Amino acid sequence: xxxxxxxxxxxxxxxxxxxxxxxxxxxxxxxxxxxxxxxxxxxxxxxxxxxxxxxxxxxxxxxxxxxxxxxxxxxxxxxxxxxxxxxxxxxxxxxxxxxxxxxxxxxxxxxxxxxxxxxxxxxxxxxxxxxxxxxxxx
Length: 138
Prior knowledge:
By secondary structure, the protein is α/β, with parallel strands linked by helices. It has a single domain, classed as P-loop containing nucleotide triphosphate hydrolases (Rossmann fold). The chain has three helices and seven strands, in the order βαβαββαβββ. It has helices at 9-20, 39-49, 94-99; strands at 2-6, 27-32, 65-68, 75-79, 103-107, 121-127, 133-137. Strands 1-7-6-2-5-4-3 form a seven-stranded mixed sheet, covered by helices on one side. Helix 1 (9-20) packs across helix 2 (39-49).
């Protein structure tokens, strides 16, 4: 497990981009943290590191999922903040995304805990100041 303190959104993106450059495809990552912690900022950096235009990455809170295929690996960005029952993911292309050799990034994974594969990598973001964050990568 690795813990890093970032002091700005730009540093958070840089950390995520560095992580993305090491990914080979097939990774499933669960990103936890409170509202406003910078989860989507982290995903923007991850996208950038995969060669995806970070400006196309938005929080999928209302859509639940966005798919980005413009980079080195496809990125499937899920946000389960608004679901009320974990079984709602069965209406999404969840199983198909898990089978692809892309990167699955999940915000609010605690809402679908029973659907997460054992190999899911855990990440968390804690707010430590107005712009600083403690990011733990498991």
